[in-house]
Amino acid sequence: MTPKLGYLLPTREQIMEGRPETGPMLELATRAEAMGFDSIWVGDSLLARPRHEPLTLLAGVAGRVPRVQIGTAVLLPALRNPVLLAHQVATLDQVSEGRLILGVGIAADRPNIRAEFAAAGVPFDKRVGRMMEGLRLCKALWTGQPVDWDGRWQVAQGVLAPVPYRTGGPPLWIGGNLQASLERAGKHFDGWFPIAPAPDLFATQWADIKQAARDAGRAAENMTGAMYLTVAIDENAQRADDRMNAFLENYYGVPAAATRKRQASYTGPEAGLGAWLDSYAKAGATHLMIRFAGGDHPAQMAAVARVRASLKW
């Protein structure tokens, strides 16, 4: 399968720079579509890393770019009431006419993220169970049939309208590299969307996920293997490396070396990017979402488009 390429809008960066206006970001989405990107993505955070609310912004993106997919990279479902989330997602899927991908995560265990959960009135502990139950409730509501639910949330003959444009709701992707995460992805999700592994480890873990899917009686061939990649393109390799380090330290507030150990990243000239991207495609990834580490986004989009053409994707 020919790999698809996605582009992450710099919502967090724009807030950090004191530029919250959405017009420039919608223009970036338009440029990305024009340059051949297959999807546009938005990250999520309430207070830990302030940025635009992703589902609201993606509604604007869906209206601006009519052809490409849109997605969350990644949404934290545990922070949201699942009945409200199901309604928002169903409406967004209708707005985009079935182009939505819901990337989800459980949130890292960091002090600022624990504080974010506390501010939202959501217990941080047992957040995996909360997320999984919430997504099951969303799926039940997306059928459009009356739902009775007796768990963390109480629903009595609840009927959601509208249901998503796509029958059953948008595909759900999740990341994670621990064994429990891999099994969870295979048993319950439509795609795997990690941020960490090198290509060889991606191939091994993707095989484990597909086996977990088959063991659960699911069609592993229908799942999507994706990757979240951070890129700094510059003909001067040292300058690219310095830009990546400065970007990550400013973004996460910890030394760049620590972040780069757990996030896949490329720094260097355009000429080397193709082989790096292709290594993930050969490992089984069929959707590569790119976050640019600062720099001129339109220029880097153009570089990626040239690399893609050279790969004949």
Structure in words:
By secondary structure, this protein is α/β, with parallel strands linked by helices. Helix content is 47%, strand content 18%. The chain folds into two domains: 170 residues, TIM Barrel; 132 residues, Alpha-Beta Barrel (TIM Barrel). The protein has an eight-stranded parallel beta barrel with strand order 1-2-3-4-7-8-9-11, surrounded by seven helices. The N and C termini lie close together (9 Å).
Shape: globular
The rounded distance between the terminal residues' Cα atoms is: 9 Å
Second rung of CATH, namely the architecture of the largest domain:
Alpha-Beta Barrel
Low-pLDDT runs: none
CA-based gyration radius: 19 Å
Q: Which structural class do you get from the secondary structure elements?
A: alpha/beta
Oligomeric state of the chains present here: single chain
Percent helix, as a range, is 40-55%
Strand order of the largest sheet: 1-2-3-4-7-8-9-11
The beta-strand count equals 11
Task: Kindly report the average pLDDT value.
Answer: 97
